[in-house]
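SEQUENCE-TO-STRUCTURE ENTRY
===========================

Subject: a protein chain together with a token-level encoding of how that chain folds.

Sequence line: the amino acid chain in single-letter code, read from start to end.

Question of interest: how does this chain fold, as expressed in backbone structure tokens?
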Amino acid sequence: MKTTVSKWMKVTALSLLVAVPLTACSGGTNKSGSTSESANGAKEGDGPVTLTMLYSEGGSPFNKEWPIYKELQARTNVKLDLQIVPESDYQSKAKIVLSSDKVPDMVTNVNQSNVLELGDTGVLLPISDYMDKLPNLKKKIEEYKIEAELENWKSSDGKLYVLPFMREMADYNRSPIIRADLLQKYGLKAPTNTDELYTVLKKMKEMDPGSYPFTGTSAEDLRNMWGAAWGIEPNYKGFIFKPETGKYEYVYTSENYKEYLTYLNRLIKEGLADPELFTSNVDQLHQKISTGKSMFYFFWNGQEISQINILGKQNSGPEFKMAMLPPIAGPAGEKALSGSRISHGTVIPVSAAKKPYFDQLLKFVDYLYSDEGNDLLTWGIKDDTYVEKDGQKEFTDKLKNSENLNKALWDIGSANSSFTHLWPFKWFATILGNKDYEMYSLEGNEKNWFTPVAKVPKLSSDQREEENLVIAGINDYYAKMQEQFVYGKASIDQQWDSYVKEINAKGVDKLLKIYDESEK
């Protein structure tokens, strides 16, 4: 064990564990109402083995009567005993549970930072040591060609400690969205680059002087969705690894980032961008777009477009039409947000390897990666929730006719992030029901819109502690100056050099040294 778990086990952990007790192998009753039975002594061929799970509740509230949930247990000869935690508080609770002496057999929905930190403590099972017992997972990693991205989830010892959630391919689920009806009305072409976007925004402002054509919700969201076109995303906490030099660079002092700020500042100064570009909530965003106060933004697409079009037709008239666009090209070219395909995963405590039902546990999690298991957890039950015609799946009428297909799936236990570990593209495209999303996703993969994920440095526990000491101060100063530069409270021309000097002094130089050392 490289470092002791006690480094971050605090008294707080004990109090929180009291608040959310585990029922693992206790014979107690969980929130779902089922009574857990000890799995000790269970042998192959016996009745259902009870496996405990920390479950993140999002979407629809958990229901033990979900047909998909019941079918999953029946097919795998497993009884699941769930400790249910609200999604909003899940990551902190997961970390606390994993640092306790009452760890369930599976902890789902763990994010990357927690996996990497915990991988160095010795509390997690090294999944990579058991790939011979996880044939379906191994097959899907190869089939999805996701090995390079999976490397970012390995700890400094080179081992993988997570059962990854994986999307089949990078998809165009966030994009620029524009008032297509106004483009037609004003005789404008859809913008393809920053210069053309400026021209379009200028014309929209001219036609409606009281509007702010470009709006948004936050600085981080905008940068995540558009930063790749400026060469500043994807990054790891502001740092990008350069293969040609074998070193990291800090992107928020780069010339491309300076150009990005300069462009946004120009839009603000000329009234082409919303003064609340970085501060609107989603309801405010929808109000501005649907009433014609703004006409362009970067956001989730798919269902978002159908929803905003309904609002817009109610608030602005039947001609209202928002449509997604291909990426707006910048200095780095026509690039969409990162093609990241792994967002979370399930971890197993190392202690599980000593349990008599360990092989059944591995068989259960491997079933989640099988074609049969994935069909169940995405499409549902054949001839009930979906049918196959000429080798193609489609949902049955009882789901297709529901008011919200995504919610209808949640309500039967499908598309559940604690169980569903594979996200097939065609299935997700069917749920969204947006032909542009499907078309642009395929086009984006063909034309390399999606930039590779940022390389994550493999830090030791000591290096990670040193990183934690300085990163907050760097990020606070970066965020403060980003806002000041964009809104003109600080001059990019006059104060850029002092900004660079100050942020380097706050620890950027120190982190560059740490990250470069991690590559040796």
In short: DSSP finds 20 helices and 14 strands in the chain.
